[in-house]
Amino acid sequence: MSDPVSNEPSLFRDQARDWINTHFPSRLAWTVPAAAGVALTEDQLSWRAAMGAKGWGVPTWPAAYGGGGLSEAQAAILAQELAQVGAYNPIGGMGIMMFGPTLLEYGTEAQKLEHIPRIAKAEVQWCQGFSEPGAGSDLASLQCKAEDKGDHFVISGQKIWTSGAQYADWCFCLVRTDTSKKHEGISFVLFPMDQPGIDVRPISLIAGNSPFCEMFFTDVKAAKKDLVGPLNAGWTIAKRLLQFERSSISGRDAFVGAHLPQLARDYVGSDETGRLADHDLRTRIIRLEMQAHALKLTAARSRLEATGNEGPSATTSIMKNVGSSVMQMRAELALEILGNRGLGWNGDGFTSTELGLVRGWLGGKAASIYGGSQEIQSNIVSKRILGLPDPARA
Amino acid sequence: MAVLSEEQSMLRDAVRSWVQEKSPVTALRKMRDSASELCYDLAAWNDMAQMGWAGVIIPEEYGGSDFGYLSMGLILEELGRTLTASPLLASGLAAASALVLGGSHTQKSLWLPQIAEGSTIATLAIDEGSRHAPDKVSTTFIAGKITGNKTFVLEGMAASLLIVSAKGADGIGLYLVKANDPGVKRTKLSLADSRGAGDIEFNGAAAEPLAGGEATLEKVLDRARAGVAAEMLGSALQAFEITLDYLKVRVQFGQVIGSFQALQHRAAKMFTDLELSRSAVEAALAAIDTDSPEAAQLVSLAKTIMGDTFHLVSNEMVQMHGGIGMTDAHDAGFYLKRARAAEAAFGNQAFHRDRYAKILGY
To answer: Are A276 and A285 in contact (CB under 8 A)?
Structure first.
């Protein structure tokens, strides 16, 4: 169990700093976590183990389930201190962003005790069995079915766009348990991935990599104890999980990518007044930077306004769309700044930064599709926040 | 909404109920139709002054409540909802800021209590051409006299104290000029948004300097800009809410038009922009209150984002109302006209985008 932490912010800051100094291998400073599927170095393993034991990879989760038990304010201080020394959070993935917070709300005590500590220590990687070939934006039309076999379900069907399925230990999955209803016929089940009947195939994307898989299930087993929430009540849980997904995405997208003013100074140059030489481009860079700045202020405001444990609300839908559009515009502008240096695919004719920006531009197109497309997010804002009605059916 | 103190919440609620009761959009319409010389309702202004709103950013020792810019922003936001015309922004915020930041004890003691009680209207006279360009000043201050031409002076006809930017021996600075000086000639500008403004000609008008030169001028302008942005936030929110209500009641093709996805997504876009705008406006006001080094950058962000948002929302208000939105009988036109005037005040989006980038070094 961790030492008690101080509620006094400056004391907590000292405690956090001391702990990081003791446990963070300095060789890892300013590095990024290893990509999924890549074996970890000794330093990476030790950093992950230290953060996992302390619970600080999931600082605000309850200590009883292996979380850090910190307040939002303390978690913010911890994040600042980690950033200060260039220390990444080694506890990541779907379990942290989406499944863990959802299970904390909807899981039984036994389910929480079984799964949450292993997520907090990054011992188990999760994947998300949601989308299907025929159920994308209209997710609730999913067909992958689970049959009741007494003490377990038997699952058959197909899932697609499953990130990291080839590395996952467990899957949280939406399955159809009643074909007579749409939303009320869906259940939320968990099952281990190392069992017969699961066929995982990576999907090659336009950016040239394979972050996503399709999964084919033939008589896959999920134990009854691994049903989350009541039978046929999975849609409510799924919606909550998608809120967490949107909020984690929105916090991420807007602030990744190139530093445009610097990139433009390097590739386009400045005029005699110190302004970027291409004024049309400059204006569009400013618009983008301002939008990103306003989004950052909105995220800060929403953290400040969040009273109690209400968690992410429907307003996160705004941030997802703005975040993905900022990210995509930034990538588009980066390519424009590079000119023909932004047309390389591979090889020594281009720098790794140039090649990375091209791949990032392509990979980023997914941001307005996954996690509920831009159009779905706009639907959510119009209906749930603004109270606009559904169209009359013809 | 920022996290407000109890006093700030009470202040906002008080302004909100006063605005709804005493100053709906019909008050602006009535004022416009009466061709009022002042371009605001004097009784309403006296009400506002009596409630202490004109002294919110003025220190207590000079008759104010020293309640800060975020609080002033709350008042302006509520007034903006119904497009309330008043000299609060020009006098209680912009001119008062100039005196607070650049005034000597004597100047403050003389003018600030009068501004706080609303008996004196003061205003800034900055712009000289068709665009806001406060660093390009032809007006001069030589041997105690101001000479030059100013335009688009808000409440220029109502003001008795003018705070004028001019070039003196040490560069650009601010100067106090009494409006009744024989060297001052004023001409009313009749504006589309019905608010008060004037052209002012200075022919050797007696003037006394405020301290701080161009640095003070920039700070004063940033306070005015943040204030306009706060007022615009209220106006844009109200314009949006009126439009949203209309989308829920107007029936065509057998259903309310708000059920059409094409309109829903435009409404979602407006809502998104309003949320981003609120964050920027509140951050700018808070930065002024703490005298943050980021204040100038945040103000330019706020004025730009808010300008774009109010522009969009006021245009959509007319479009989504269809024919009725084109009629003078509907309020949409008032919001549309106010949006353009407010965007221009103290620098439009193009001005502030350029400034934002310059501050960040590109």
So the answer is: yes
Superfamily of the domain at A126-232: Butyryl-CoA Dehydrogenase, subunit A, domain 2 (2.40.110.10)
What 3-state DSSP class applies to B88?
Answer: helix
Between B35 and B222, residue with greater pLDDT = B222
Residue B347 distance to chain A (closest CA, Å): 16
DSSP characters over A321-379: HHHHHHHHHHHHHHHHHHGGGGG--SSTTS-HHHHHHHHHHHHGGGGGTTTS-HHHHHH
B123 token code pair: 């205003």
Contact B301 A389 (CB under 8 A): no
**Closest CB from A291, A386, A392 relative to B255:** A392
Distance from CA of B354 to the nearest CA of A (A): 8
Structural domains in chain B (count): 3
Q: Mark whether B246 and B342 lie in a shared domain.
A: yes
A392 close to B (CB below 8 A): yes
pLDDT, tens only, B217-241: 999 999 999 999 999 999 999 999 9
In terms of residue numbers, what domain contains B257? 215-359
Q: Which of B161, B178, B211 finishes a domain? A: B211
pLDDT digits (tens, 9 = 90+) for B277-322: 999 999 999 999 999 999 999 999 999 999 999 999 999 999 999 9
| Known active-site residue A245 | yes
The full length of chain B comes to 362
B237, B276, B308, B358: best mutation site toward chain A, by most A Cβ within 10 Å? B276
Cβ-defined contact of B362 to A264 (cutoff 8 Å): yes
- Answer whether A318 sits within 8 Å of B272, measured CB to CB: yes
CATH number at residue B182: 2.40.110.10
Is B265 inside a domain boundary? yes
B266 within some domain: yes
Chain B partners within 8 Å of A390 (Cβ): 259
CA-to-CA separations, B37 to B41, B92, B157, B222, B345, in angstroms, rounded: 10, 20, 8, 29, 21
What is the architecture of the domain spanning A254-385?
A: Up-down Bundle (1.20)
Contact between chains at A381 and B272 (C-beta distance less than 8 A): yes
B245 touching chain A per CB within 8 A: no
For B292, counting Cβ atoms within 10 Å of its Cβ (0-12 exposed, 13-18 middle, 19+ buried), the class is middle
Q: Are residues B196 and B228 in the same domain?
A: no
The single residue listed with the structure tokens 């002076």 is B153
Task: Give the ipTM.
Answer: 0.94
**Average pLDDT value for chain A:** 90
Nearest residue, CB atoms, A315 vs list B275, B277, B361: B275
pLDDT digits (tens, 9 = 90+) for A234-243: 999 999 998 8
Q: Which pLDDT belongs to residue A308?
A: 38
Please name the member of B256, B269, B357 whose beta carbon is closest to the beta carbon of A389.
B256
Asked if the structure places residue B1 within a domain, the reply is no
If we measure between CA atoms, which residue out of B52, B57, B79 comes closest to residue B67? B57
Q: How confident is the model at residue A311 (pLDDT cuts 50, 70, 90)?
A: very low
